[in-house]
## 1
Amino acid sequence: MALKECDNLRHRREQALTACCMAAAAEADLALQPARRAAMLMDCLAVLRAAHPAADAAQWGMGDFRRALRGPLALLLPATTESDDGLGTLCLFDEDGLVRDALQDLCREHLVPQVALDRHWSWPRLRAEQEERRLYEILRRLDPHEYRRARALLAESPAGPVRELRRAWDQLWMRFDFFEAVSDWPWCHLDGWWYPCPTCRWPMRVVRRAGEVEVRCEAHRARGVHYRLSLEPVAAGAAPLLVGTGSASDPVVGLPASTEHLALSRPVWRYGVLPTLLEIELRDRLQGLEHVQVEMWPGELRPDEYDLKITLSPPGRRTSYFRVDAKAWESVDGLARALLEREPTPYPLIILLPNHQEHEVEFLKERLAGRRITVTTLKRLVARIEKAAGGVR
């Protein structure tokens, strides 16, 4: 079997295993409301069907799924042609119908957080969490130089022609299997073309309304990254022209939406690329400020502890340290829950949000009360450090 086919099978087998574990957790929770349990099981069954060949998937009904959950996993997982991985003989329930402790071990080994079992997360949220954790697991295994290089590449090369990406990522290419074909993302296609955001370089969304087409970056629309389709004709085989309609709508050129163009998966873009851009912008805004030293991505630390260490040492005054963890979550409520689930840090920590989320700072502060955490935005933090440093460059 070809390497790509083996990777695809392993991916489908892992997805099916995760779906079975989530379904078993929902089945075992007697306090879970029936409607919520039914929704969870339908979600997991859909994932299971997608993991199997279409002909096999059509045979699976909800009753079949629930009965099979109480038997060996071989009944549910896609068959493997590789050496036996031992999963097929495992059972998620014991002979008394109780969920086995091994369920938690399986989830931990496949990057499913315990809270996902306890609170019965939706499948999209779980997959996003798994992708983020998988990214950090890979980053943790890199040496400090490779780690800093990988973080920079998240911002510099998140999408583009596969040849250019392979050249940019070089020796790190085989370690980062987070790229997907843009051809599989119809939401960013405009007549067979896609357009990279001028800020984050990731594909922009195409929105069709009555009589008009808008192309925008979901993350940077608030900063003025949005366009409309030009009515100006183009040559045959050329990409449609876009007209900027926002303050940050720099000219963009369409690229073919083909299998030869790849982009980082959405979770990696959301939780890897966007925070990295925020960190780089903070560093650049503080560049040249007297008595201020910025250390990016301390490689000796766990990557999820903090991203920047800012040292402020004005003459005649005590040295101050700012440990900054940049976040670019869509939901600050979800961010609050994630931060509360983390072990408290032994040092004060600054959570940095994009400027457009300034109105959500107070909400996050209230949710994190009692922790050694300060919540601020890029604009506020830069002003605070400039004032403390005397504003001298």
Note: The two ends are 60 Å apart (CA to CA).
## 2
Amino acid sequence: MGRILVIDDDPSIRRLVSHWSESMGHICEAFGSITSGIKHIRQYPVDIVFLDVMLPEGNGVDHVPMVLEANPECAIVILSGHSDPRCIEKAFDSGVQDYILKPIEKGRLYEVIDSLLRQKDKAAIRPAIEHSGIIGESSRLNRCIEQMGLAARMEGNLLITGETGTGKELFARALHRNSARAENRYVVVDCTNLPDNLAESLLFGHDRGAFTGADRTKKGLFEHAHKGTLFLDEIGDLSLNVQKSLLRVLQEKTFRPLSSSKEVNVDFRLVAATNCNLYEMVEKGLFRRDLYYRLKTFSIELPPLRSRNGDIKLLAKNYVKSICKELGRKPLKIGSSFMEALYYYEWPGNVREFVNVIRVSVYKAVYEDELTFFHLPQNLRSRKVVVEAEDKGGMIAGMPQAEMVADEAPEAAESGDNGNGNGNGNIGGWNGEVESLELQALPVDNAPDFPDLKHYRKNAINQVEETYLRHLAVVSENSVKKACRISGLSRTRLYELLQKHNLSLRA
């Protein structure tokens, strides 16, 4: 018996999915908003979440990370009446398991529920994955670890992608340790430092006398990796000539060292990594298409540190402890101002940059017992100040706060309300009344000019959002933190909506 949750603002969809789920013998709860749905997930275990795209709080796909943070073990299935390829791609990139188009077919729903619950049962009996060195508990990182564990139990090439500093080599080593090849060699090749004129000699090896200076026979890296794992880091930097040679080895499992008349048989597993978009390189003719698809037997895209909510604290504790141990000193305490600054920063260099920042901060605190805001590099300190300034107040659509309050809430201004909710029971200078919306007039007698529902609804939603945001700014006194708490929106989603409607909460 599974535990299913439906989050959809359409009551008929909630009733339909609930009825079909319960007819299969499962427990199903349904909610009309993401806020109430996530509240339920935090209190009760859930196996499958059916999530609508068009929700009162915005696009359901944007809230997938919040759902996974609330329950990393649940499987998310998107429900949508739109087949926009960009939306579908974004949904799968964010971690959803499936995408069902409306109107929902009963057989399709049954198949999805049955398949996801069987996968969950199998996952419960899988052997533990050894991933020492990979620090974090966020849902996106855990999913990558699960993918790595699955790939390790099978044969086939693996492509690991992600921004620089996200830990691609850590995952490659972990895959080798968890695979059947763990007792054999793990060979690393940095393609960035692989000179084109020496690449074939380094990879294939050579016989004595193959070229000037070749005074002895030497095995290549392919042969060294026999029965083990070969890791090609930054494979996007390989020249087209070397790509062609690599493809032949992967296809034939044989190669001939330079100046040798003998073929050498090899059996290695290839793991490749890159921070480049190989597909774009293929389209531009910079990377071989056949090699690209040969590499992608399995693929893992590692998340940037800025999207790994909750991992900052774990990483900080781990690296402060290990760096202090290196220096032979007592572990430093981590001050609250120090930790806040780590959270506010975007980390373009990801974990690699994070470790360097912690190391520098520990060095600066050589005569102290606690890390504070002042031990951090200047760019992190300035970022914290900027975010706090945004939280304290600002302007909307270029209007000073006082002018905006008078314009948006004239009743409050005239009654002497000071904007702190101390007037006639008003909150933040707003009297609680929402201005009436002038929706697009519908031409009753002219069918050709009658709008379709999709565009009419979109225009209405846009008007509702803009009105809500203007009043939210008043109620929250232009504080980003307070606006997020009142509205239930994440900081990222709030900024997206403000930008969409050309509004601002910036100082």
Note: The longest helix spans residues 453-475.
